[in-house]
From TrEMBL, chains A, B:
Name of this protein: LL-diaminopimelate aminotransferase
Keyword annotations: Aminotransferase, Pyridoxal phosphate, Transferase
UniProt entry tagged with the keyword Iron: no
GO MF term set: L,L-diaminopimelate aminotransferase activity
Cofactor: pyridoxal 5'-phosphate
Top-level taxon: Archaea
SUPFAM superfamilies linked: PLP-dependent transferases
Transmembrane segments: none
A Pfam family of this chain: Aminotran_1_2
Enzyme Commission number, as recorded: 2.6.1.83
HAMAP family xref list: DapL_aminotrans_1 (MF_01642)
UniProt domain Aminotransferase class I/classII large: residue ranges: 35-404
InterPro entries per the UniProt record, alphabetical: Aminotransferase_I/II_large, DapL/ALD1, PyrdxlP-dep_Trfase, PyrdxlP-dep_Trfase_major, PyrdxlP-dep_Trfase_small
Amino acid sequence: MVLVNENYLKLQKNYLFSDIARKTRDFIAANPKAPIIKLGIGDTTLPLPPTVIKAFHDAVDEMADATTFRGYGPEQGYAFLRELIVEHEYRTRGVSIQIDEIFISDGSKCDTGNILDIFGRNTIAISDPSYPVYVDTNVMAGNAGDPTNHGQYSNIVYLPCNESNLFKPEIPAFHVDLIYLCSPNNPTGTALNYGEMKSWVDYALRENAIILFDAAYERFITEDQIPHSIYEIPEAQKVAIEFRSFSKTAGFTGTRCAFTVVPKDLLGFDSNQKNFSIHALWNRRHCTKFNGVSYPVQKAIAAIYSQKGSEEILRNIQYYQHNAQIIRDGLNKAGLEFYGGINSPYIWVKSPQDKSSWELFDLFLHQMHIIGTPGSGFGPNGEGYFRLTAFGSQKDTQCAIERIQNYDFNA
Amino acid sequence: MVLVNENYLKLQKNYLFSDIARKTRDFIAANPKAPIIKLGIGDTTLPLPPTVIKAFHDAVDEMADATTFRGYGPEQGYAFLRELIVEHEYRTRGVSIQIDEIFISDGSKCDTGNILDIFGRNTIAISDPSYPVYVDTNVMAGNAGDPTNHGQYSNIVYLPCNESNLFKPEIPAFHVDLIYLCSPNNPTGTALNYGEMKSWVDYALRENAIILFDAAYERFITEDQIPHSIYEIPEAQKVAIEFRSFSKTAGFTGTRCAFTVVPKDLLGFDSNQKNFSIHALWNRRHCTKFNGVSYPVQKAIAAIYSQKGSEEILRNIQYYQHNAQIIRDGLNKAGLEFYGGINSPYIWVKSPQDKSSWELFDLFLHQMHIIGTPGSGFGPNGEGYFRLTAFGSQKDTQCAIERIQNYDFNA
């Protein structure tokens, strides 16, 4: 008789996106001509830029010729890409990362989930609301304890992010081991400034904790005081792992590439308090359970570090940033309260008249034919909020905003 | 203080490929003109065929256009690919698999490792010798117990594969929960026939066990009595997960694609003997920790199911099969004993004169300038064997074989 991982049985069914899909489907069935605009999911819509496409094609052609064909590559990624990352993402910001501290992968979703493989039973702190993968993977790993009756888990230390703290997680007054930080944040769209991030690094140094820093939306930062990497904070390499997705940076949501930085200074401990290199453990995990990212994909993403490639992806980011500005302006005119959208593609809208997230979802869908994401899907502290994203087309975004402005929320 | 996964600390350092690389490097440094031929690693060398390349390019072009751009796809893979797999890998063999029982991934290495996520503490049976990932991932998961002083682990049930059983694992006389079977086998090159596979399925049905069936080398099968899928055995869908890599099938070692079949009939149990769908657990794992395979890669591999594509990959397989035949003929002429090479790209050479695997490695490198893989690297029962592969060029393979034939092993 095969025993299943009983931690999985504690997972709460995540109906967020399936419920959105079902409600949308039902509405369209009843209203087949309704001009639905989707501003819900955080998925890019602009095509890959020409320089990336050219590099992608060139690499595919290499695979067509025996003299340039590539079989198994290094599990950790090709040196050509890791070197470009070290140079352009770090050295230019005054941060010194070694090439072999960079691990190329097929996505930060995988890495943020898989990283728990190398850790034992620890106290985990996670912002609420947050990207659901953080909680779910801790449930799977047995770190979460039991579900509570308000949609949380007994052993997770939740860091509430709400209006009173401007959606910035507060440093706990007690010890935790692993801390998930996502800045700029999904779903709230807010970002930690240098001082706030330094407080977290200081806490981790003091407490021998490790920060799992998810910087998936780094390219959307516009303000100077927001660090692009946690390693801009001194000594952060002793206490932080950084996850960097190319999904939003370069429109790679469907092409799949990311990297994770695991500094060699990071230490974990066994139960006898003997220390071990986290880098060595992750390297072993990566080489044992992963076989590298597709060569043409690595060549394609490397092209964003060329002069032309970087200009092209910047233009795409600016297009989305302009959408965010359109949404912000429109919500202001509509008299709705919101957060985010400055250093982030996400706008976190506060429900008017104390409506619940799902009530606002229904209102937007039925009255304005706009699909957003109910904030409660990201955790109990997301209740009463609604996430809009800047990843639509400019035309759709403009049109959606006009509908919002024309709707009388006080009716 | 962050606790590491202490199971990782029980991993034995795997020096196999790094030792091979170091010895090779040292030899080349001392003998820069030695005409080294590599018949060691199981990596393909023929380029991707034209039909695959064309589909790859076409999909990259789709990513260049906003109207055809693909962002996040289904985590489980696109329906177009899953339907082709169901049709061409199963329906044509009389096996009925549902589309949503197919999970597309970036590699069987990942899947055979990650599958343990959904299982609890079970008794694990693994062939010896075997692909090292099976053992290592069980060590990481805490299933293996402690290292023994002869290179094994205390809690793993090893199924010795040696000359006396023609390298076919024997069914244990007691209960085990999870059984790794790889046929055609890496590293021994042997394959289970219908009756042998049926015995395993019968055992699993009887014992409520689950077989983890790795069919990475399926395309190399030439003999009629060797099943291409474990699901050719009646009722196997109640007891088997099948891993199917495209690495050797289509030269995707560097392009990365595979699929895993998790039938809905498969059941696991909690500690109260309540049953749970393994399919549902894996689906949850796959959707939580994985974000789908790169769209162009999925389009590229789908092309192997076209008429032209299937002919092209068949020609590549035949090229490698011809190499295997060259090696077999040559070893016969050289008077060396060996196994495999008929339904497999691997030839498992028995060391003459009771040489150890590493002694034979050194002999081949120093005397014949041929690199193979020491069998002992795959487990203690691999000691005294040496793995050659058919993935080299025909010219190199021919040349290597001439050197072997000209070498006097009795000298």
